Serine protease
Amino acid sequence: MPATPSTASLQVFSRTLSGLVAKAAPGIVAIHSHRSRASGFVWRPGLIVTPHEALAEEGEITVALPDGETLPVTLAGRDPTTDVALLRVDRMDLQPVSLAAEPVAAGSIAIVVGAQEGAPTAAFGVVSLSGSEWRSLRGGEIDARIELDLSLRRSAEGGLVLDPGGQAFGMAVFGPRRRVLVIPSATIDRVAARLETHGRIPRGYLGLALRTVPIEEAGVGAMVLGVEAGGPGAAAGVRQGDVILAWNGDPIRSVRTLLKALGPDSVTTIVRLSLKRAGEPVELSLTVGERPEA
């Protein structure tokens, strides 16, 4: 029976999708860590990106290549705040993927290409939300809020997200209640580059224990409950009982907001603190330190 125009169109559409998956598959690998299965992709020669949350905290990590070969990898670094981990593999001939930074609109078709035991997997859906930059619950700076409406198998977390033209615009990860989020290309490139060089993402550090408190002027401040000996706060002259009223001239809104300002770019910067000490105003300069590794 000859194909009708509608079925012919569906066949073309189907072949197009499978072609996009096949084109992306050589750069996708399956990630195996202790009791965990996920996907990842070749970011640069010898380097693979995968979600931090999908990796076990310890133990051996291996990757299954598209041809089925299994190789050991080492952890180059991981950033819990942006859910990006970087792995090193002793194979420089693996095909890196090309990440696009173009914005994606809500309603656009999205295809997630993952891997399972070396074989490609695919999930099909739409971009349900495309918003501006945001901070994760752990304080990571994500360049765009992108959510997908599709069903994703656990082993496909870390897969590459493609637009209808086959351009990769990010990595698929699970958010709260298994909502599928996208870590966009710009975030991946920024974080992975730092992990390749430093092995970790530095975070600002004050060496202060703080609590949000109301102040007489109908606002809030950050009361200093403790000062770590030898920390940046102690070096600046901050004392227990001080109340921080402003940070570089901006009124304190909450301790949580203040701590969110301590991103990677804050390390070594000098900030002006406006305090109230025993009812008297005090101005101090504090050099933000780098948070020690746990």
